[in-house]
Automatic annotation (TrEMBL), chain A:
Location in or out of the cell: Cell membrane
Region named Disordered: 311-339
Bilayer-spanning residue ranges: 38-57, 69-102, 108-126, 156-176, 206-232, 244-265, 271-295
Phylogenetic lineage: Bacteria, Bacillati, Actinomycetota, Actinomycetes, Streptosporangiales
Protein's name according to its UniProt entry: Branched-chain amino acid ABC transporter permease
Superkingdom: Bacteria
Bilayer topology annotation: Multi-pass membrane protein
TrEMBL record, chain B:
Name this protein carries in UniProt: ABC transporter ATP-binding protein
Lineage: Bacteria, Bacillati, Actinomycetota, Actinomycetes, Streptosporangiales
Organism: Sphaerisporangium corydalis
Pfam families registered for this protein in UniProt: ABC_tran (PF00005), BCA_ABC_TP_C (PF12399)
CDD domains (alphabetical): ABC_Mj1267_LivG_branched
Record has NAD as a keyword: no
Length: 339, 252
């Protein structure tokens, strides 16, 4: 089990990296950039949903808030785009601090509703503050350059942004597999017990919220810079909903599931737009319902379970941790055990 | 046994007009094993939740040493040296016992805020974790997800978790609940072993456990203290017999 895991992980990572590098050759480059940004957004959201047990329905505030912040930085200061993107991420983190502080003490649907409400407030402000944000026209003509190099070609921008996006993925992975991540999982599974062990649960949730927002902001900022404009839609609640949908499709608490979900949803949206189909919501909604009904752990989660069941059967009674008399894998694969 | 280490004064908790705990005074002597007994609904678990900060009292005060604990949050109470176990086994199903204990031992070190480090940082608590697991007889199951452990093992892990905090006061909520005779005996032995240097407060229904462990017993009924004293004394108290022990002894 452990050996096969070790053998599998670099292979998967290498495959992912190759795919990330080859993506703009395979599909329309702006769509490739969409996928990569949404993938990071979904992974960052999964940090909260899958590993802390908080369903945020207001992450558009951070994705979109950072989109505007990054665009404004680029427009008004002319700083290189990575600085603008990181500035957007910092803005998202700062924005997340009061929102998180006021909402992490709520649970379940109440947390979702309050984060949604805050995100709608952000949407309202962005919509009303026309002088700064351009209102419903969005913020257009955002420059993309790096040391005099023009990156307005999406193909080029994709490769310029990829290191930042990959760093974002590494950050999510690091947080999940850190001592802090261990506490998050314990809070997700049993908050009262975590408290009894001396952990201030709400402060841990708040830091998780801020980290998730910052990484969502990094993705949103790069998205806006890459397209050359920040749109009002990026702070609208449908953006939050789409990110949640991607995570659920791919598998909550799987980390990489959100990446798959993002790829799928973006590709599907693009296809439906290209063929001129109007009812995108109906199609994505139907697929969403089917996948949730058939694969309850999402695409990645289901695939991993199948794989674990097979390796478990092929190598019964593998000496390892714990009592595996019945040949079951020592660690039940499930939420919170990223491959 | 000096003065009281844990003290409740006029402690009360009201739930929508119902007083689950109604003006309880409790003095737990330093180094003693103090049992809380009483029929179901007497307010024992509510009292526990008040003492550990999981519930805020409607009235009254809680003192640890000279320090006022009233209104403290559960994690603060835990940090100040009052650890509890739960009546209904309360664990992290996907984590192994070893991971549980590493987490318990790491609390308060600040290491768990380091989101930029590998979780292998917690390996430094591995030795102490294994020691504790060994102490409660779980060393052989250190790597099994807690969700799949047998009931007795889960209870043992409960106890190990509370011990990992190295508390001054250990609050055990029905440590032998649902156990077979053999496990009960082991648990009694274990409590006897770990009480050295600490104070133990336990809610317990099993009177033979109470008689063999407790220095003092407080009998609760309807949220009030009915009587308090050494086991040998209170077991003959007619009020106690009619309220509780009468029923329990009838079964023996």
């Amino acid at each position: 089990m452990i050996l096969s895991r070790l053998a599998r992980r670099p292979l998967l990572l290498a495959a992912g990296l190759v795919l990330a590098l080859a993506l703009p050759w395979m599909i329309y480059p702006p769509v490739a950039l969409d996928m990569a940004c949404w993938a990071l957004f979904a992974a960052a959201l999964d940090l909260l949903l899958g590993f802390t047990g908080l369903l945020s329905f207001g992450h558009a505030a951070f994705w979109g808030g950072s989109a505007y912040a990054a665009a404004l930085i680029a427009v008004h200061s002319g700083l290189p785009f990575p600085v603008a993107a990181l500035g957007g991420a910092v803005f998202a983190a700062v924005l997340a601090l009061p929102i998180g502080y006021l909402s992490v003490r709520l649970r379940g649907i109440y947390f979702a509703m309050v984060t949604l409400a805050f995100a709608q407030m952000v949407y309202f402000v962005v919509n009303q503050w026309r002088d700064l944000t351009g209102g419903e026209n969005g913020l257009q003509g955002v420059p993309r350059e790096l040391f005099g190099l023009d990156l307005s070609d999406s193909f080029v921008f994709y490769y310029a942004a990829l290191p930042l996006l990959l760093a974002g993925f590494v950050a999510v992975w690091r947080v999940v597999r850190s001592p802090f991540g261990r506490v998050l999982v314990s809070i997700r599974d049993n908050p009262a017990r975590a408290q009894a062990l001396g952990y201030p649960v709400e402060r841990y949730k708040l830091l998780a919220f801020v980290l998730s927002a910052a990484l969502s902001g990094l993705a949103g900022g790069l998205f806006a810079l890459g397209h050359g404009f920040a749109s009002l839609e990026s702070v609208y609640w449908t953006t939050s909903g789409q990110a949640v949908m991607m995570v659920v499709l791919g598998g909550i608490g799987t980390l990489w599931g959100g990446v798959i979900g993002a790829g799928l949803v973006v590709e599907l949206n693009d296809y439906l737009v290209t063929v001129g189909f109007d009812g995108i919501g109906i199609v994505t909604g139907t697929i969403f319902v089917i996948i949730v009904l058939v694969f309850r752990r999402g695409i990645w989660g289901t695939a991993r379970d199948l794989l674990a069941a097979r390796t478990g059967r092929r190598r019964p009674g593998e000496p390892g941790s714990g009592d595996t008399q019945d040949g079951a894998p020592a660690r039940t694969p499930g939420v919170g055990t990223p491959v | 046994m000096d003065g009281p280490v844990l003290r409740a004064q006029g402690l009360a908790k009201e739930f929508r007009g119902f007083r689950a705990v109604d003006g309880v005074d409790l003095d737990v002597a330093d180094g003693s094993v103090h049992a809380l007994v009483g029929p179901n609904g007497a307010g024992k678990t509510t009292l526990f939740n008040l003492l550990t900060g999981f519930l805020k009292p409607s009235a009254g005060r809680i003192l640890l040493g000279g320090r006022d604990l009233t209104g403290s949050r559960p994690e603060q109470v835990a940090r100040l040296g009052v650890a509890r176990s739960f009546q209904i086994t309360s664990l992290f199903p996907q984590m192994t016992p070893r991971e549980h204990l590493e987490l318990a031992l790491a609390g308060g070190t600040g290491l768990t805020w380091r989101f930029w480090r590998s979780h292998r940082l917690l390996d430094r608590f591995g030795d102490r974790a294994m020691e504790l697991l060994d102490q409660v007889g779980l060393a052989g199951h250190a790597g099994t997800p807690a969700g799949t452990l047998a009931y007795g093992h889960k209870r043992a892990l409960e106890l190990a978790l509370a011990l990992a905090l190295d508390p001054r006061v250990l609050l055990l909520d029905e440590p032998t609940a649902g156990m077979g005779a053999e496990d009960v005996e082991r648990t009694v032995e274990l409590v006897r072993k770990v009480r050295a240097g600490r104070t133990v407060v336990m809610v317990e229904h099993n009177m033979s456990v109470v008689s063999s462990l407790a220095d003092r017993v407080t009998v609760l009924q309807s949220g009030r203290v009915l009587v308090e004293g050494p086991y040998a004394e209170i077991r003959h108290d007619p009020r106690v017999i009619s309220a509780y022990l009468g029923d329990a002894d009838a079964g023996h």
